[in-house]
Amino acid sequence: MxxxxxxxxxxxxxxGALAEADSxxxxxxxxxxxxxxxxxxxxxxWVEASWNQLRSAIRQPRxxxxxxxxxxxxxxxxxxxLIATSPAFRPAWILSVSxxxxxxxxxxxxxxxxxxxxxxxLAVAPLVPILGVAVSYASRRDPIYVIxxxxxxxxxxxxLQRTLAVTALSLLLAVVPGIVFMPADVSLAWLxxxxxxxxxxxxxxxxLALPIxxxxxxxxxxxxxxxxxxxxTPNRILDPIPYLLVVxxxxxxxxxxxQRRTREPxx
Amino acid sequence: MDEQRDIELLDGIAARDEDALRQLxxxxxxxxxxxxxxxxxxxxxxxxxxxxxxxxxxxxxxxYRGEGEVAAWLWGIAVRRLIDLIRxxxxxxxxGLRNSPSAEEEALLDVGYGDLxxxxxxxxPDLLEVVRATxxxxxxxxxxxxxxGIPQGTVKTRMLRARVLLKEALV
Amino acid sequence: xxxxxxxxxxxxxxxxxxxxxxxxxxxxxGVTGIVGPNEAGKTTLLQLxxxxxxxxxxxxxxxxxxxxxxxxxxxxxxxLGYAPADIEIVTRFTxxxxxxxxAALKGLATGVHRNDEIEMVVSAMNLESxxxxxxxxxxxxxxxxxxIGQALLxxxxxxxLDEPFSDLDPQERRALRSTLASHSLWSTIxxxxxxxxxxxxxxxxxxxxxxxxxxxxxxxxxxxxxxxxNIDTASPIETAYLNIIHGDQVG
Lengths: 267, 171, 251
Known about the structure:
The complex is a heterotrimer of chains A (267), B (171) and C (251). Chain A is an all-alpha fold and 267 residues long. Helix content of chain A is 73%, strand content 0%. The longest helix of chain A is centred in the middle third of the chain and has 27 residues, at 155-181. Chain B is mainly alpha-helical. Chain B has helices at 6-14, 18-37, 43-59, 70-90, 103-110, 113-120, 125-136, 141-148, 152-170. Mean pLDDT of chain B is 83; it is low at 92-101.
């Protein structure tokens, strides 16, 4: 482009006085020529106002689909956000958990001896919620832990909301493969053990760091299954009464400890 | 004031630097606003199109592939955001794929500023606005139809007539 | 008049050491700087004021409320901002997401109010250029400024900052002092530092701690009267501080 519009042309273009054909030619030229673009005058007040609006827009946090779903279910904004942003709701986590659950459940449907086939899924399903809970909470040594525990919307309230959400999610992720692949009478057999392991982790988490508590409970569960298999009493594993007792005791311990934890998050 | 080249600003935007976006916005929003306003007289819609344009740039700076000027790329985004807003006002259906420019249209774009002005000056207004939309603004037939508020068939016939006249004028 | 922070005969004992030893300290609006050697008990004192731990003995009253009562504890915490000394955060958040997260935790309603608060903190702590970057990729100084910023969200009446000047360059420190000065108009700010000069420049009153005990509480001017003519006068404040600590260690 060797020819540039003269000052009069630019002024006329801006005021609207320039003929259409000349205006079009000028516009085509402006696309290619930075010095001429700079010759256009502009309203600094408008540019600033436009920028302020743009800046506010780029600083808006974008709600994930999960958060929007929770809001649609009338969950308060701040709560929906805090649940949706908890680490256990990340797509990668949900995907890997689902794969593992489907794989172990499918393995169960393939193997013909009922109790052996049940084992992989029965081992894994109760571990999922405790892993979710452990992943959801910052280590006590993380500065964010203290800030979270001290905040009005944090602390016990947040702990319970997140735990509930993670447990519900984990149970949901296990329900479908269980029903689809496992024999009907045992497809929900893992449910009570899963609730038991989760409540044990929470109870133990009142004295130990949650990841450690999760590890202990998870290992304990696998040992229990292993022992039951070795001693050839696998079906005793499905007896609900012991689990119910464990759940009740765990909840009592957990509740009793909350008072102290709320008062002294760093103890 | 040290103004960075547009490409450097896009790199800054990719690195999540707000100030790079601010500078790009300051450098381009005035001429974009003027050019959009000459296509659509509702200034509120135009200003919203500008907002949407730079929001798109912030979210996807990588969409600029290094072909042609950044200014041209910005115009492409801006005019399409404008058409989206117009469609929403008119509740038009969504649009199909962009046709690639014909050889004649490409040739027109290569013509010098002075020659182009001369040739365009010979066109009647209805043909001129179609040429503006399809050749200069880079819209598809459908997009041009939406912007101008005329049927697609009319866009095509006017374009044909304009081509004939422009060829005569530029030869 | 009830003061914002009333620490009366407070002791905090752990299994092998006494971190805070029968401390009595009353603080009002303005900036109070706690200084002392490492292991003096500064962090523990701040944790007590931030209600993160409870005293072993003694009484604590914050914002005219009793933190042992759950309802009053909630009220204190809703007016509290706390920035711990440790900046080793594990998070996937960007600075902006982090601030929004803390704002949500603090119950700041979404919308204009929350955006304005974040805006205020971002400009006070100069976080504009790091806003959209992940916190895990930021320099320690930027993380520090972000943590201080989150403590300021919502304009709390009681702000507790542990080692706020660490990792900051001289310009950032000056900017922080100015931010603290303006916030101290409506808040009580308690900060702890091992660096004397920053604290003296920032604070209206100084408290010197050693081995869990309070050795001095007063204005920087009052502190400088403790300077002995014998020791080198690099700065009267520093001399006075060293005198006090030395005297405590020997006596």
